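User: Just a sanity check before I run the rest of the batch. Below are the structure tokens for the first item. I only need the designed sequence back.
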């Protein structure tokens, strides 16, 4: 049955807040995974740009004794070359974690705010993070 207008507004705010928190959790998880997986690329490109004479030309000892312009250019090129496979690895890790944790199933439709008797999980009353959901439920088709 339909909810009253004030109850509908309150439930809309609750569902909107919950969906925003799930979105931020997904964003945080993605940021952490991509940062950890792309760390080698970040380090290699950083040292390449730091020691190149045309870019930053740091006065650090390792820039003067170990890295010249040619080796700095090689580091920059190497960093950008290894970025593509690492992006694929990071996305695969994120997708497998999101699927295993069922993070995309946690988004709730706003029809729960309009009608009484809606449930968070199909066939069950527990929220999706309580793991009472059907394990066969897919987050995407």
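Assistant: Here's the designed sequence for the first item:
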């Amino acid at each position: 049955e339909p909810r009253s207008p004030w109850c509908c507004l309150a439930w809309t705010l609750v569902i909107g807040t919950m969906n925003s928190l799930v979105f931020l959790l997904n964003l945080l998880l993605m940021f952490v995974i991509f940062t950890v997986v792309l760390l080698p690329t970040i380090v290699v490109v950083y040292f390449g740009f730091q020691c190149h004479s045309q870019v930053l030309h740091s006065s650090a000892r390792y820039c003067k004794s170990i890295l010249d312009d040619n080796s700095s250019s090689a580091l920059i090129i190497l960093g950008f070359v290894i970025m593509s496979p690492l992006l694929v690895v990071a996305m695969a890790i994120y997708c497998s974690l999101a699927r295993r944790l069922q993070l995309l199933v946690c988004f709730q439709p706003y029809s729960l705010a309009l009608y009484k008797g809606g449930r968070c999980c199909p066939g069950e009353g527990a929220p999706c993070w309580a793991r009472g959901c059907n394990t066969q439920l897919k987050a995407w088709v």
